[in-house]
Amino acid sequence: METKRLNLVDTAWLNVETERAPMHVGGLLTFRMPDDAPADLPRRIVEHYHSFTRAHAPWNRRLRSGGRLSNVTPEWEVLDAIDVEYHFRHSALPAPGGELELGMLASRLHSHPLDLHRPPWEAYLIEGLSDNRFAMYVKVHHSLIDGVAGMKLLARALTDDAHDSERPPFWAVEPRKHRLRSPDEMRPGLYRAVAELLGDAREQVTSLPGFGGIVRDMLNAARHKGGSIGLPFSSASSVLNGRIEAQRRYATQLYSLSEFKALAKSAHVTVNDIVLAVCGGGLRKYLRDIGELPGKPLTAGIPVSVRPADDEEEGGNALTFIVANLATDIEDPAERLAAIAKSTRHAKLNLGKLSAAAITQYTVALMAPYVLSLVSGMAGRTRPVFNVTVSNLPGPKGPLFIHGAEMEAFYPTSLVTHGQALNITVHGYADTLGFGFMGCRETLPSLQRLAVFAGDALEELRALYGDAQNETKPEKPARSTVKRRKSG
Known about the structure:
The protein is of the alpha+beta class and 488 residues long. The protein has helices at 8-15, 41-50, 84-87, 99-111, 147-156, 183-186, 190-201, 208-225, 257-267, 271-289, 333-352, 356-376, 448-465, and strands at 3-5, 24-32, 61-63, 75-78, 88-97, 121-129, 133-141, 248-256, 299-306, 318-325, 388-393, 401-402, 405-413, 422-429, 432-440. A six-stranded mixed beta sheet has the order 5-6-7-2-13-12. It has a six-stranded mixed beta sheet with strand order 8-15-14-11-9-10. The protein has a three-stranded antiparallel beta sheet with strand order 1-4-3, with no helix packed on it. Strand 5 (88-97), helix 4 (99-111) and strand 6 (121-129) form a beta-alpha-beta unit.
């Protein structure tokens, strides 16, 4: 039987897998059925999908060891067929289900670890949503595929043809053929850097002294070579950065991309700055509401694609992270947005001046401590690299369908770990931005309020930058998996 070895980074995700911190990512997609669709369309989709028992990579891979790790690098075992009824399941909400009930179901589904004796992914078609809608929830282990690539593969199973009812499910879509790439191209920036570090240091991270020595070396390198781009472990300690429990809370918000672009233009900032201001404003109100707002500003780790200054090739952007100030210590929303924009401009300006080698060094200094803290078991017991991950991912530009039902929204569901009890991921689709707030249930009580407060932060930005400069209103009302609290 064909086997394939896992690389060092993917092995690391397996090493940190625990019952309290399952390492899976995924997405929650909602669809609206056409008016003339048969009432049993969801069942027909399930039956159609269940007819595809052969899966293509990576969906046909399971751990040869059944999830038990040893000193030998674990291997993927490639299966000829999968138990499709196990991996793709039919579920339902009591009709008519709303966004709140859907978010609660997604929270429960995302709380459970995947069975590592099988290909580590599951999908659910969920019917019973109000307004003639249904949803699809997918989760996949981070060692099998990262969230960005996974969502791209999932989108390939959808179609831009509303009349196409023969499209195979995502696991049965044949992979595209790519040119043969060098090992350096396979894992640019972050992944290559961390893999190199883990390769050199994997024997040292089993003890606290070894871990501390590695961190000290990286901090010294960052001080001498990183300039003003920032250091890891300089963030405020907060309730977001302790140890976590197993159960999750999940909330969503859906906004208009066109509106975010108009607000950014009016405020002379980027769309991502508006996203960060919505997150920062929401976090400030939420943490103050639960009595946990730090005096220092929270920071966000943001994945970015950066071209080194000495890279003259036309393609192959490097992947790294920047640390941005969320300005949660600033009450005025205009001043908060200005501080966020200044922070991101400063970080990107400094990164843009670095060579490819310097970017690798910077990435190691910034992100390897986080990975090493997970592997060593120190995550959630030391000062965080940054307080929260905020990702803004581009998505399909046009409408997509499944058996004639149009996809309304694409909400990401990401992982939380010890030391990172909250993850905020934003996914673009057509003219929408789907916000997914994933958090530890015990650490962050009533997480749904964070999504509500994020909406309040957007209202503040609308009042400042929306009315005078932007006459365009969102085409569709915002959807959310939360209920707004009544005033008073």
